[in-house]
């Protein structure tokens, strides 16, 4: 591995609202950082998307405007005001407009932001959403940068002719990295830190080096980078070897991994996972209680499973019923803009949570056992994050529901009491079953066929875990399966990669649904 992903930064998370983590969560994070860069209240913003990019045809329907609006308004994702950002902006007298334009990009999910503050100060940014809520700000005010939200970012803006790069490097020994960018004769120096600096320290640095401006941007990811310790395994082969030597299951290995990545204690890491799992289970509860939201395709359906079982229309006392009910409830919460956990994405957030709760309930597993199952799932997701990642716009739904199926399968084996090798093999088998899966949301809402794909991923996870725990052979190692996902995606046409231009999204019925929704929303 190169720079190792974090379970909480890159796999299980973010905690969010909205239909898509790529669209909503990443855009909220980008906008939040840009607002902080402005250093004064926002007056207006113009946001644009490249006409040839993946976001141009669906940025409103898939929640990009929701995320950007919320970030620019300074709202937390869990704030109920996120459901009505346009009203909040109007009340505050803030103008936020969107348009499709033409500009050079490095990634299909690229956005430009141009902000103006109340005194006329301006900030421009070019940023890309990388999948699952991950992002990179690539330019700030014309300067090349690489900001991903996992560090404190110290920005020095220098007047012409001033170069204090070496002085900063010597004067801030705690820095993790330092980079310089030059634009039209001016210089921006970006220092990455793992600790906060006080306002007094920022003022002192500005005066000490006579710089035009010093800005500290706070991290927006939950795990701050730069505190990493050596992970005792990196490759899947070394992971299995380490597990055999120490007799650790995959849940234990996942906990050790995130401890190493975060620099936090076992108790601190465990507490974060407990919070995430509580939010996931709460989203199931919220969905089952009933959700309503105007701009969505499907009504509440999760309650229909118990109703049908009681009426004798379907199998009674089947764990499959519980899986479908749980997955549906999470997806309904997501589509109603309630708080969910992207796991590993919002579009695939139902599978892992839905099936792990169903299996844990069936086994009468303890909370601790369920938490360990999530660490097992998260560790599988780490290898996926370090491979193709979770961007459906690049790879199709095989990196969303396919990845979630593999994660869930590993978590189920953990609940079964299986070995790390069995959990890894179950993940391999589950992902094999979903390679090549296209992403074709109807009417650009992440509901259908997404709900069915989440349910299929969850049941696939259970069957794969059951087969491997029974002695079936997964045959192809997980690392080779993950590599195959990337090679297959390179052969898939762009139209079936979350663009709304292929698959079920362009059927006669889907087009009629989209037209109807568009007319209803004005």
From TrEMBL:
<keyword id="KW-0408">Iron</keyword>
<protein>
    <recommendedName>
        <fullName>L-serine ammonia-lyase</fullName>
        <ecNumber>4.3.1.17</ecNumber>
    </recommendedName>
</protein>
<feature type="domain" description="Serine dehydratase-like alpha subunit">
    <location>
        <begin position="257"/>
        <end position="505"/>
    </location>
</feature>
<keyword id="KW-0456">Lyase</keyword>
<dbReference type="InterPro" id="IPR029009">
    <property type="entry name" value="ASB_dom_sf"/>
</dbReference>
<dbReference type="InterPro" id="IPR005130">
    <property type="entry name" value="Ser_deHydtase-like_asu"/>
</dbReference>
<keyword id="KW-0479">Metal-binding</keyword>
<keyword id="KW-0411">Iron-sulfur</keyword>
<keyword id="KW-0312">Gluconeogenesis</keyword>
<keyword id="KW-0004">4Fe-4S</keyword>
<comment type="pathway">
    <text>Carbohydrate biosynthesis; gluconeogenesis.</text>
</comment>
<comment type="similarity">
    <text>Belongs to the iron-sulfur dependent L-serine dehydratase family.</text>
</comment>
<dbReference type="InterPro" id="IPR051318">
    <property type="entry name" value="Fe-S_L-Ser"/>
</dbReference>
<dbReference type="GO" id="GO:0003941">
    <property type="term" value="F:L-serine ammonia-lyase activity"/>
</dbReference>
<dbReference type="Pfam" id="PF03313">
    <property type="entry name" value="SDH_alpha"/>
</dbReference>
């Amino acid at each position: 591995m190169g720079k190792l992903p974090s379970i909480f930064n890159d796999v299980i998370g973010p905690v969010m609202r909205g239909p898509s983590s790529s669209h909503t969560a990443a855009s909220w994070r980008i906008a939040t950082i840009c607002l902080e860069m402005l250093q004064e209240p926002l007056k207006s913003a113009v946001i644009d998307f490249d006409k040839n990019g993946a976001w141009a045809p669906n940025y409103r329907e898939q929640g990009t405007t929701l995320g950007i609006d919320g970030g620019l308004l300074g709202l937390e994702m869990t704030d109920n005001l996120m459901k009505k950002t346009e009203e909040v902006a109007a009340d505050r007298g803030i103008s936020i407009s969107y348009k499709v334009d033409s500009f050079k990009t490095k990634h299909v999910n690229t956005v430009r932001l141009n902000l103006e503050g109340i005194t006329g100060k301006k900030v421009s940014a070019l940023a890309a959403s990388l999948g699952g809520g991950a992002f990179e700000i690539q330019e700030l005010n014309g300067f090349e940068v690489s900001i991903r939200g996992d560090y404190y970012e110290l920005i020095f803006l220098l007047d012409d002719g001033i170069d204090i790069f070496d002085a900063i490097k010597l004067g801030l020994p705690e820095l993790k990295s330092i980079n310089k960018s030059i634009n039209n004769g001016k210089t921006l120096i970006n220092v990455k830190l793992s600790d906060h600096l006080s306002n007094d320290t920022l003022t002192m640095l500005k005066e000490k080096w006579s710089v035009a401006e010093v800005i500290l941007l706070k991290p927006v990811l939950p795990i701050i980078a730069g505190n990493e310790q050596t992970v005792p395994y990196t490759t899947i082969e070394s992971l299995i070897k380490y597990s055999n030597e120490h007799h650790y299951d995959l849940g234990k290995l996942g906990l050790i991994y995130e401890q190493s990545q975060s620099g936090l204690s076992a108790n601190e890491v465990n507490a974060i996972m407990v919070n995430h799992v509580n939010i996931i289970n709460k989203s199931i509860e919220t969905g089952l209680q009933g959700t309503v939201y105007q701009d969505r395709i499907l009504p509440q359906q999760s309650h229909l499973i118990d109703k049908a079982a009681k009426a004798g229309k379907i199998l009674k006392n089947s764990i499959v019923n519980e899986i479908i009910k749980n997955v549906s409830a999470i997806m309904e919460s997501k589509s109603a803009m309630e708080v969910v956990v992207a796991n590993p994405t919002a579009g695939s957030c139902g599978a892992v949570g839905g099936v792990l709760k169903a299996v844990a309930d069936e086994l009468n597993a303890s909370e601790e056992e369920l938490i360990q199952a999530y660490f097992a799932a998260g560790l599988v997701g780490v290898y996926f994050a370090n491979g193709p990642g979770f961007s459906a716009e690049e790879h199709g739904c095989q990196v969303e529901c396919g990845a979630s199926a593999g994660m869930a399968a590993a978590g189920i084996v953990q609940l079964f009491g299986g070995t790390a090798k069995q959990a890894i093999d179950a993940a391999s088998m589950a992902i094999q079953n979903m390679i090549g899966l296209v992403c074709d949301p109807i009417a650009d809402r992440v509901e259908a066929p997404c709900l069915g794909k989440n349910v299929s991923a969850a049941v696939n996870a259970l069957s794969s875990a059951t087969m491997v725990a029974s002695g079936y052979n997964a045959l192809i190692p997980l690392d080779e399966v993950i590599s195959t996902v990337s090679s297959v995606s390179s052969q898939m046409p762009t139209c079936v990669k979350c663009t709304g231009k292929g698959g079920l999204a362009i059927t006669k019925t889907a087009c009629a649904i989209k037209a109807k929704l568009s007319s209803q929303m004005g």
